[in-house]
Amino acid sequence: MTEINLELRKELVKEIPELLKCFQCGTCVSSCLAEKYSGSYSPRRKILMACYGQKDIIAKELWRCVTCNSCNERCPQEVNPYDVLIKLKNYALKHGLVEDEALQATEKLVRKTGRAMPVNERTQRMRQELGLEELKPIDDLDKLFEEKKEEKEVKQK
Length: 157
Description:
By secondary structure, this protein is an all-alpha fold. The protein has 2 domains: 1-97, Fumarate Reductase Iron-sulfur Protein, Chain B, domain 2; 99-157, no CATH class. It has helices spanning 6-15, 27-30, 33-38, 43-51, 55-61, 70-74, 81-94, 100-113, 121-129, 141-156. Helix 4 crosses helix 7. The protein is globular, with a radius of gyration of 17 Å. The model has no long low-confidence stretch (mean pLDDT 84).
């Protein structure tokens, strides 16, 4: 049985009232690409666990969303699951709930490819079948990261 952290739930609902609009129909899951290809990602479950005040969901499991926005397009309650997941990520970052390991892995991938999700051969093949261009790494991201780091250091002084 899942234990409810009422204090965190109250705080999350205050910051993200859309959490309470979700009636757990699962429509978002049926169109979720992260669920389809990983078999273990469910926007519905992430929202439910956030409503239960589960820190682990916020700290570890939000970061596999491929940002395709299909959940928003199909949600019958206009919860906008993608937007809720972004707000949960922002909350997690703001409150120091994200494990450094998860952040470092995501940053490394973004620096290397310009994307938060790995692009594999299957992705490239599917894009080709759909007549889309091959995804290529984005240049100069390290330079951008360093510039932002320097700006942040200057602001802190």
